[in-house]
Write a structure and sequence with these properties.
The chain has 493 residues and is an alpha+beta fold. The chain folds into three domains: 118 residues, D-Maltodextrin-Binding Protein, domain 2 (3-Layer(aba) Sandwich), CATH 3.40.190; 105 residues, Dipeptide-binding Protein, Domain 1 (Dipeptide-binding Protein, domain 1, Alpha-Beta Complex), CATH 3.90.76; 212 residues, Dipeptide-binding Protein, Domain 3 (Dipeptide-binding Protein, domain 3), CATH 3.10.105.10. It contains 14 helices and 19 strands. Strands 1, 8, 9, 10, 11, 12, 13, 14, 15, 16 and 17 form an eleven-stranded mixed beta sheet that branches. Strands 4-5-7-6 form a four-stranded antiparallel beta sheet, covered by helices on one side. The longest helix has 18 residues.
């Protein structure tokens, strides 16, 4: 059977013209970035673009271990670290070389309550930042923190630009890409610094239209956010390349734990056992996802293995509902919020159908990204679905689950409160890495047991391209491969 979306493509697709090498490489994305300030960004689209615009002191490998970027570090004592900027660090776009003053100013601003950075919680134990000279500074902490280098991943801004009101929309960084201007469609134009190649980041919310733009030569690159049948269709088209990499993007169904109905774990368990994750991964993702039980993959140094999955078990789900006082005469009705992305809406309607089978009625509301994300941060929801993108540090456990991390101070959007979990998070942050790994595993078991969310899957990173080479998807779904991508006919090997 030919799927309707493929019929639409066949009808709409005219003669495909080759990409114009005299213009920008066009990257069609589902959602445009909104905040080009690494201190404030909390959505995936903004964070991915910020990683291109701002260099960081430290980056993390796939297992979450720190690697030198702009700087190297040294532990002077359990609560004092020295950071030395490397001589070959990249200059800011204005020609100045980032120095210790820029680093200190950036991190001091993160600690300023007036800024309202969502990253402040993970850095709150910094008590003093001392500039030794232009390339050397020291961080004094209020407690021992063997994992402190993993927290030095925020992009560095020029000190003199920090107080500029429009810094989040007119950035000034030292990353491999330079911001040129915003596009009329809400996208942006970037320029790669090493060769001045232009890149247009173009928002195209509808996945079918993104695929059409690639097929027609109006776009050169797509990454993720397509239904499986479109990936299959694109993979069969001559002149296109499809690449896949296992990902760390963790999808989940979120609960408002402050809601009087969803505060009952039996209701959350009924929802978890009503969802057939295997069927969704098989049919909607085309097996381009892997079932997940926790936000960190098991192979991460702080990950946990062996969590018992919430299997698809409709009878068990009905039993939990009955215990909570719901049946056919007293049905459970809940609201579910999602974005207007067609693929996410398809998943929402599958959830709706699966939950209806056990007697739960879900009323779906979809909104543009800004409205949807604003409601989630404000706690204006019962159920929603989102994904954590690019997670590679256990700081996510404080950021998303500590009781002091309610928005805007963090991303505890479900309003989870557990004194014991808070205590373990704080202990893990003080412990040596071996002990911390055990504590982080304990924390994830507690979150899984408490059903703070329904864990769904890790989505693979899938890239479709036309006329390009050397773009390889990464584990975290970042856009950093844009630094190496080029037109296929740029050079003769």
């Amino acid at each position: 059977m030919v799927r309707p979306v493929l019929v639409c493509i066949a009808l709409l697709l005219g003669a495909c013209s080759p990409p114009d090498t005299g213009k920008a490489i066009v990257f069609a994305v589902a959602t445009a970035p909104t905040i080009l300030d690494p201190r404030l960004a909390s959505d995936a689209a903004s964070e991915r673009i910020n990683a291109l615009l701002y260099d960081r002191l430290v980056t993390l490998d796939p297992a979450g271990r720190p690697k030198t970027a702009m700087a190297e570090w040294r532990e002077l004592s359990p609560s004092r670290y020295e950071v030395r900027l490397l001589p070959d660090r990249t200059r800011f776009w204005n020609g100045a070389q980032p120095d210790a003053n820029d680093v200190a100013a950036t991190y001091r601003s993160l600690l300023d309550p007036g800024l309202g950075s969502p990253h402040a919680g993970a850095l709150a134990h910094i008590t003093k930042i001392e500039i030794v000279n232009d390339t050397l500074l020291q961080f004094q902490l209020s407690r021992p923190d063997p994992g402190f280098p993993t927290r030095l991943t925020i992009g560095i801004l020029p000190a003199e630009e920090l107080d500029r009101d429009d810094i989040a929309h007119r950035p000034a960084g030292s990353g491999p890409f330079e911001f040129r201007h915003w596009r009329d469609d809400g996208g942006l134009l970037l320029q790669r610094r090493r060769d001045r190649q232009a890149f247009a980041v173009v928002p195209v919310p509808d996945p079918t239209m993104r695929a059409l733009k690639l097929l027609r030569g109006e776009a050169h690159l797509l990454q993720n956010d397509l239904p499986s049948e479109l990936y299959g269709y694109l993979g069969d088209r001559p002149g296109l390349q499809l690449l896949e990499h296992p990902g760390t993007t963790f999808a989940y169904i979120g609960f408002n734990l402050a809601d009087p109905v969803l505060s009952d774990r039996r209701i959350r368990a009924a929802i978890a056992h009503a969802i057939d994750r295997d069927a969704i991964v098989r049919h909607l993702f085309g097996a381009r996802a892997h079932l997940a039980e926790s936000v960190l993959r098991p192979e991460h140094w702080a990950g946990v293995d062996g969590l018992e999955p919430y299997t698809h078990d409709p009878e068990r789900a009905r039993g939990y509902l009955a215990e909570a006082g719901f049946d056919r005469q007293h049905p459970l009705v809940l609201s579910y919020k999602t974005s207007t992305d067609p693929f996410r809406l398809r998943i929402a309607h599958v959830f709706q159908s699966q939950l209806a089978e056990v007697g739960i009625e879900i009323r779906i509301s979809s909104y543009d990204w800004g409205t949807f994300f604003g409601d989630i941060k404000a706690g204006n929801f019962q159920l929603y679905s989102l994904a954590w993108v690019g997670v590679n540090t256990p700081d996510i456990l404080r950021y998303a689950f500590h009781s002091t991390s309610l928005p805007p101070a963090g991303a505890n959007r479900g309003r989870y409160r557990s004194a014991l979990t808070d205590q373990w998070i704080e202990q893990a942050e003080r412990a040596d890495l071996e002990s911390a790994a055990l504590l982080y595993a304990r924390i994830q078991r507690a979150i899984h047991r408490d059903l703070v969310y329904v864990p769904l899957w890790y989505e693979s990173n899938v890239v479709a391209s036309r006329g390009l080479r050397d773009y390889v998807p990464t584990h975290d779904g970042s856009y950093l491969a844009l630094n190496s991508v080029r037109f296929e006919y740029d050079a003769v090997e």
